[in-house]
């Protein structure tokens, strides 16, 4: 595991750490433009062509959409323990997101006869992108589908790549049944993003797509951003374990490996001012690695020598400064008083406190949303929430008395900014009582 003493690093070395695995996806964007144009022109035919090319599955046209009996069968095939875990997670995730819901409408008086407020309404339709990779991700469907349902989105579309047999995985289908998602389409990658951006004979056009995907799906979102709202930017996984000399090295060692196993381009960092802690953590990691599959072990060891490893600081305050500059996707706080440390954390997608709140809990079952901004975007973006599925309309009302009170101010602004019609609308407006 690479140990970087932060004060001794050059600006170039610090920049490498902060940038993480910034990917140049210009080549993927060229491919995305070509395929998107074809999907726009040929619809389902293009979807089927590229599903066969990229996923190795030849689907019939009537198999693009998952039938209700497929959802039911997938749920029934899944073992009861996994169904129970999904249902438990769904309950916690729903409870968390219900607390996020704003008032449907509110008003306040800003002056006599002048009332302003907001009306909140759900987006009319959204697409949830659930990746597949080498396995099933029912947790992603829960993290996307539940806030969309809580927000009251009328039309929810799910796109997800098919497995080798041309089906959706049973765990995903079970999650869909448990939370009440019905419209699922077996299509992923560029062709999926293009399908919902333009609409095809089978796949409906949507106003927004949200959910993590590979570099090709990301490229398609960028290319098609003029046609569909592409939501939260998400890249390779990242975590910071912020620890002091009081942290349990066993728990630190276990947790710094969590996000590192996502892939070789992930970033897992132990940030601490305690060299003694580091010296205890390293042999524990060496002892734990053989318990993992060869693939996950390879990802972790690559990660710890590139974008991850140890950042050794001079003090807890310097560690916190590093965290706020880095703005991690996930972070765990393992300090003597994690709630006091929490007050100083300004930039992070999620903040998990104490020695018994590993990222694993939030990724699946605790309740907070695990779809988070990466690559430093936590400085300006938040985790997926009900707000991603809602929109607000400003509301204003002026009575006759209120209009008389405010018309002079409004007219002055209009004249200063050179808008003659704006000015006339208030200067020559009659306020005689016609009733």
What is the number of helices?
17
Q: How are strands sequenced across the largest beta sheet?
A: 1-10-9-8-11-12
- Name the poorly predicted regions: none
Strand content: 15-25%
Name the average pLDDT.
Answer: 95
User: How far is it from the N-terminal to the C-terminal residue, by CA?
Assistant: 81 Å
Quaternary structure state of the chains depicted: single chain
Total strands: the figure is: 13
Gross geometry: globular
Strand-and-helix sequence, N→C? EHHHHHEEEHEHEHEHEHEHHEHEHEHEHH
Largest sheet: 6 strands, parallel
| Helical fraction | 40-55%
Alpha-beta content class? alpha/beta
Estimated radius of gyration:
26 Å
Helix/strand layout:
Layout: E1 3-5, H1 11-19, H2 26-42, H3 44-55, H4 68-77, H5 80-98, E2 105-111, E3 114-122, E4 125-129, H6 138-151, E5 155-160, H7 170-179, E6 184-186, H8 189-198, E7 209-210, H9 215-223, E8 238-243, H10 249-256, E9 267-272, H11 275-288, H12 294-305, E10 309-312, H13 316-326, E11 330-334, H14 338-342, E12 350-353, H15 359-364, E13 390-398, H16 400-416, H17 420-427
Parallel strand pairs: 1-10, 4-5, 4-7, 5-6, 8-9, 8-11, 9-10, 11-12
Antiparallel strand pairs: 2-3, 3-13
Helix pairs in contact: 2-3, 2-8, 2-9, 4-7, 5-6, 5-7, 6-7, 8-9, 10-11, 16-17
């Amino acid at each position: 595991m690479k140990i970087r003493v932060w004060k001794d690093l050059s600006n170039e070395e610090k920049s490498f750490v902060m940038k993480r695995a910034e990917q140049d996806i210009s080549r993927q964007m060229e491919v995305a433009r070509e395929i998107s144009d074809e999907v726009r022109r040929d619809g389902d035919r293009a979807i089927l062509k590229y599903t066969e090319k990229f996923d190795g599955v030849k689907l019939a046209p009537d198999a693009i959409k998952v039938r209700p009996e497929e959802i039911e069968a997938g749920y029934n095939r899944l073992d009861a323990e996994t169904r129970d875990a999904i249902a438990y997670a769904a309950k916690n995730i729903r409870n968390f997101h219900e607390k996020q819901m704003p008032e449907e409408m509110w008003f306040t008086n800003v002056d006599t006869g002048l009332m302003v407020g907001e009306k909140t309404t759900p987006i009319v339709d959204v697409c949830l992108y659930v990746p597949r990779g080498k396995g099933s991700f029912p947790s992603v469907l829960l993290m996307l589908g539940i806030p969309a349902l809580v927000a009251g989105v009328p039309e929810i579309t799910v796109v997800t790549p098919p497995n080798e047999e041309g089906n959706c995985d049973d765990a995903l289908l079970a999650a869909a049944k448990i939370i009440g998602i019905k419209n699922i389409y077996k299509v992923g990658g560029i062709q999926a993003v293009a399908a919902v951006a333009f609409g095809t004979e089978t796949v409906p056009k949507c106003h927004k797509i949200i959910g993590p995907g590979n570099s090709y799906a990301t490229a398609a979102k960028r290319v098609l951003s003029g046609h569909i709202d592409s939501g939260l930017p998400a890249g390779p996984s990242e975590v910071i374990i912020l620890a002091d000399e009081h942290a349990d090295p066993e728990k630190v060692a276990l947790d710094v490996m969590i996000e590192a196993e996502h892939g070789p381009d992930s970033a897992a960092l132990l940030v601490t001012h305690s060299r003694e802690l580091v010296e205890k953590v390293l042999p524990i990691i060496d002892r734990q690695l053989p318990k993992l599959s060869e693939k996950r072990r390879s990802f972790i060891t690559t990660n710890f020598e590139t974008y991850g490893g140890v950042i050794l600081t001079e003090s807890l305050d310097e560690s916190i400064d590093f965290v706020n500059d880095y703005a991690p996707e996930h972070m765990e706080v393992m300090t003597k008083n994690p709630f006091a440390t929490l007050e100083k954390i300004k930039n992070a997608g999620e903040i998990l406190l104490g020695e018994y709140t590993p990222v694993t809990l939030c990724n699946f079952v605790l309740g907070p949303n695990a779809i988070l901004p990466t690559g430093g975007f936590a400085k300006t973006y938040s985790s997926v929430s009900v707000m991603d599925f809602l929109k607000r309309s400003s509301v204003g009302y002026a009575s006759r008395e209120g209009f008389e009170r405010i018309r002079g101010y409004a007219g002055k602004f209009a004249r200063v900014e050179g808008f003659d019609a704006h000015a006339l609308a208030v200067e020559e407006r009659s306020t005689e009582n016609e009733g």
